[in-house]
Write a structure and sequence with these properties.
This protein is of the alpha+beta class. The chain has helices at about 40-55, 65-80, 130-145, 150-165, 205-215, 225-240; strands at about 1-10, 15-20, 25-30, 85-95, 100-105, 110-115, 120, 185-190, 195-200, 260-265. The protein contains six helices and ten strands.
Length: about 270
């Protein structure tokens, strides 16, 4: 299995994105801090979740069972409680037999390049439907040049409160946190292995800037680790130098963590 990957923290030293590859699988996580400051930190949660997933993902167990067990383990390790703990997206690529399985929970993106030259994008947009008016409001203000001011921060707080109220509910959205039932709500796709040429797993911090700048996903298929690292550094630099106040690409903060993991067929 040929995998190349890179990560670029947004503001903190290590950030809250994580990725890892095994002999048959690739996992990408994008952690989010809890709204409650007394909750365990998101970096501890994603570390525990990644360890639990990597220990299980190459087994023959169904992916929902693997993710459910990993969520339960991580929540226990950091003592997280439903609705009050840190959370994380989950994106998984797995080779199993003559098939490729993909699983997605949360707003990470998976792009599949087929051998016939077509592409398919897997997204989970349920979170974006929560507090949609407030999201539109802050984007409108950023486009107008308001910047990341106190009003912006207050709007983000209101969005987080709304998210917490409907976390891991059918009328809201599902995410890895402390309720293993979230694994049953993952989006799962399966492809014949010989039908897939390449696959990219991207945290939203990378995906949004890539799409905004019109960078081809297919161009990542043969990228090396160093190529991907340079690209993420360039995206970070574009945010700093070309759009520091989110006018061109409205986003919740100037810099988000960015991760890209690329699999391609031998």
């Amino acid at each position: 299995m040929i995998v190349h990957a890179a990560s670029r923290p947004g503001d903190s030293l290590l950030g809250q994105d994580r990725w890892a590859a095994t002999q048959r699988s690739v996992v990408v996580l994008d952690g989010a801090s809890a709204f409650d400051a007394s909750a365990p930190p998101a970096d501890a949660y994603v570390d525990a979740l990644l360890d639990a997933l990597i220990a299980r993902v190459d087994t023959a167990a169904p992916l929902p069972d693997i993710v459910a067990a990993a969520i339960e383990h991580a929540a226990h390790i950091v003592d997280a409680s439903p609705g009050g703990g840190p959370s994380s997206t989950v994106a998984i690529f797995r080779e199993i037999g003559q098939s490729i399985e993909l699983a997605l929970l949360g707003d990470t993106t998976i792009v599949v390049g087929r051998t016939d030259g077509t592409q398919e994008r897997l997204v989970d947009d349920r979170l974006s439907r929560v507090a949609a008016d407030e999201r539109q409001h802050y984007r409108h203000r950023l486009r107008a040049g308001a910047g990341y001011d106190e009003h912006h921060r207050a709007t983000l707080g209101a969005i987080q409160t709304a998210e917490r109220a409907v976390r891991n509910r059918d009328d809201g959205y599902w995410i890895a946190e402390a309720d293993p039932r979230a694994a049953k709500a993952m989006f799962i796709r399966q492809y014949p292995r010989d039908a897939v040429s390449w696959c990219v797993l991207a945290s939203d911090g990378a995906q949004r800037v890539l799409d905004h700048l019109g960078i081809s996903w297919a161009s990542l298929a043969t990228a090396t680790d160093a190529d991907l690292q340079r690209l993420l550094d360039d995206l970070h630099r574009w945010e700093s130098e070309s759009d520091p106040d989110g006018v061109l690409l409205p986003r919740s903060k100037r810099h988000d963590d960015k991760t890209l993991a690329v699999w391609h067929a031998e």
